[in-house]
């Protein structure tokens, strides 16, 4: 029902004009969609976005744009995403593609799939992009340039709609689109995103002896994402509890291996572990360069 | 014996023309010292540095430049720093200032102080700068621009010599110079540098499920320094064992607090901990901006 050439004919509604939703709206500007509408509870944000022509029009009442929308992009917290779709299920037009941008997928997709029935197609998505902070004021048109996008389809999704979402995210700047099973997504993301965020906070919290002058680059980088939206991240983390607990335990085991080598003054074991880390990181960086 | 205006009259010898020593030599170029000599075991590196006029002359034999040097900057591994000074103690000119750049201080300073006696003044130093990788090929003239430098004097050092080292490091680009007791240095650095390096390696090692496409920015930053010189870092870590073990234990306790909140589905505790991390990091960043 939708392909790259037809983006110009589409009505797209963004629900939640914050960091991600605002950046989506900005990135959509260049695509000449028929309309880019936004729904938010903050009238000022809608007004600002309208005034700077980032959206065609903003609505406090989702009942106005939803019946005319071809694609709805949910940019809310996970729980609010489910609540919004549930509360407004009757207002969506039959055939609408709904997609989202939440950082956890399995639980959310199960809940939403149970609500939308067969008339709507909900396709989970997760942009591998963002920045410290939150809110529309932090949004940026180029936030997605060159980043990768994960789509987590289920057997219920129609292939043509999955392709449509893939084309849309490529059009707004994402470079690579990866399809993953929702459960596999949550397992991997527990390691590659949730764990590093917890580490950043724990590293700040474990010592009050902070001093900027003696903070090496390694410390600054490891704690960058401690500037966190704690309400959103608490929700993300608790929604992916089991996977994250497993990753924390594995990480503590790795730390314990280092601790043992250090406690035993075992240079050989320490060098072996540091070499393993170096090789793993180098392989990742090689893959980034070669695109593997 | 040496002040900022007299750098032009000084003979400076750099021992070890690697990442730090090479960058020191490059940064010294603009200061019109009488001579910048280098000692290294790698003849090719000395030849390259001579050819590109980064040093006045390079020597395999330290016996040639040491007797004529006003300042000697040691840029070797910690153990090799001690060994070099011990092996060449008779070649230094009386009154020479010796300083070093190793990442641990207490043990090293005790050992060297016992060797140098009263004719030479050894003043410990630690540049808060560097980069992934190692060796002369990675050296860069601007590596120290805006970074801070730690000097770890002891009661034995002469104040005028401490001031001379401070002036020298400011002249090659360091912005702020901090004096710290050697033991306090090692305690703090265990937290702000050694621990983040161990975390980076442990985070790579705890999961073989690496995939560049799903590696969020948080993961990339937290693992940046896993590209490590494992021989040097093994030595640094084992020289600072007791402090590092204490920091690892404190960090694992902080992680365990997160783990408990997640295992108990305790959103309030999780939010409190994430907020503590956010506030700690924000305070650090504020200090960086205001220079406090």
Could you write a compact summary of the structure shown?
Chain A is an alpha/beta fold and 292 residues long.
Structure description:
Two copies of one chain form a homodimer. The first copy, chain A, has helices spanning 19-28, 43-51, 78-87, 106-116, 159-171, 182-205, 217-222, 230-239, 241-263, 267-290; strands spanning 11-15, 35-39, 57-59, 71-74, 97-100, 121-127, 148-152, 176-179. By secondary structure, chain A is an alpha/beta fold. Chain A has two domains: 4-180, Rossmann fold, CATH 3.40.50; 185-290, 6-phosphogluconate dehydrogenase C-terminal fold. In chain A, strands 3-2-1-4-5-6-7-8 form an eight-stranded mixed sheet, sandwiched between helices. In chain A, helix 3 packs parallel to helix 4 and helix 6 (182-205) crosses helix 9 (241-263). The longest helix of chain A has 24 residues, at 182-205. Chain A is elongated, with a radius of gyration of 21 Å. Mean pLDDT of chain A is 92; it is low at 1-5. Chains A and B meet through helix 6, helix 7, helix 8, helix 9 and helix 10 of A and helix 6, helix 7, helix 8, helix 9 and helix 10 of B.
């Amino acid at each position: 029902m939708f392909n790259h050439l037809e983006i110009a004919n589409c009505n797209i509604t963004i629900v939640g004009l914050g960091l991600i939703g605002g950046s989506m709206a900005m990135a959509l500007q260049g695509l000449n969609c028929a309309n880019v509408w936004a729904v938010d509870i903050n009238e000022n944000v809608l007004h600002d976005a309208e005034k700077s022509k980032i959206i065609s029009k903003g609505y406090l009442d989702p009942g106005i744009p939803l019946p005319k929308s071809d694609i709805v992009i949910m940019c809310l917290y996970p729980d609010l995403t489910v609540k919004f779709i549930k509360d407004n299920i009757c207002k969506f037009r039959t055939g609408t593609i709904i997609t989202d941008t939440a950082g956890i997928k399995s639980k959310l997709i199960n809940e939403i799939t149970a609500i939308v029935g067969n008339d709507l197609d909900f396709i989970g998505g997760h942009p591998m992009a963002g920045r410290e902070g939150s809110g529309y004021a932090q949004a940026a048109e180029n936030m997605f340039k060159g980043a990768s996008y994960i789509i987590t389809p289920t057997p219920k999704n129609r292939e043509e709609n999955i392709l449509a979402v893939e084309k849309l995210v490529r059009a707004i700047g994402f470079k690579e689109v990866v399809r993953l099973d929702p459960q596999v997504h949550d397992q991997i993301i527990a390691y590659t995103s949730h764990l590093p965020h917890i580490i950043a906070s724990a590293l700040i919290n474990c010592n009050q002896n902070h001093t900027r002058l003696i903070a090496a680059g390694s410390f600054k980088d490891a704690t960058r994402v401690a500037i966190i939206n704690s309400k959103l991240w608490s929700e993300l983390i608790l929604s992916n509890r089991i996977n994250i607990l497993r990753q924390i335990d594995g990480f503590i085991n790795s730390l314990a291996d280092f601790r043992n080598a250090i406690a035993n003054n075992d240079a050989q074991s320490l060098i072996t572990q540091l070499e393993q880390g170096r090789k793993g990181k180098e392989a990742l960086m090689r893959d980034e360069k070669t695109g593997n």
